[in-house]
Structure formats: C-alpha cells, structure tokens
C-alpha cells in the first residue's frame, strides 16, 4: 500500500518539455487517459507524503467531525459504535 501511494503521489502529468501529456488524438490527456500520471521511478524512493491509511481509519475521524453513528453507518454501510 505504501509503495502504491508513493507511486501515485510522485507521478507527473507534464512531458519533458513542460507541456501537458497528450492522448492519442494529440490533445491534453485527462485523468481517464492517464490515471495519476506517468511514474517517476527516481522520485518513488523519496515520496514525501504517503497516504498510509485504511478505510476503517476514517470511522473515528467521521465521528470526531460530529457525524452521528447513524450517519457514519450510512456512509460505511456497516454497524459502528
């Protein structure tokens, strides 16, 4: 999971000349064309920010924001306490 986060957060969306990456029609690519962007292997070794969190980690966060158990249950689709 940490490796995937490092790859996603260090990807780039511009080519070597500084222009946006193009799709097959030679127009600026969207996230649907390229996802997070192109992988930069050298930056993966020092990603800086890493999203090291599991979906269950959001439950206490939502409760801390003031959502009721019922509201959190609707979001996560399971019983919470």
UniProtKB/TrEMBL annotation:
Query: Which compartments does it reside in?
Result: Secreted
Where would one find the signal peptide in this protein? none
A Gene Ontology annotation in the biological process aspect, one of them, is: proteolysis
Keyword match GTP-binding: no
A GO CC annotation given for this chain: extracellular region
Determine the domain of life of the protein's source.
Eukaryota
Q: Which GO terms describe its molecular function?
A: serine-type endopeptidase activity
- Signal as UniProt keyword: yes
Print the keywords alphabetically.
Signal
Family that this chain belongs to: Belongs to the peptidase S8 family.
Name under which the protein is recorded: Actin
């Amino acid at each position: 999971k940490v490796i995937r986060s490092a790859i996603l957060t260090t990807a780039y969306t511009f080519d070597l000349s500084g222009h946006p990456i193009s799709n097959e029609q030679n127009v600026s690519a969207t996230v649907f064309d390229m996802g997070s962007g192109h992988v930069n292997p050298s930056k993966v070794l020092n990603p800086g920010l890493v999203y090291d969190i599991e979906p269950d980690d959001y439950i206490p966060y939502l409760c801390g924001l003031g959502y009721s158990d019922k509201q959190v249950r609707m979001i996560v689709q399971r019983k919470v306490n």
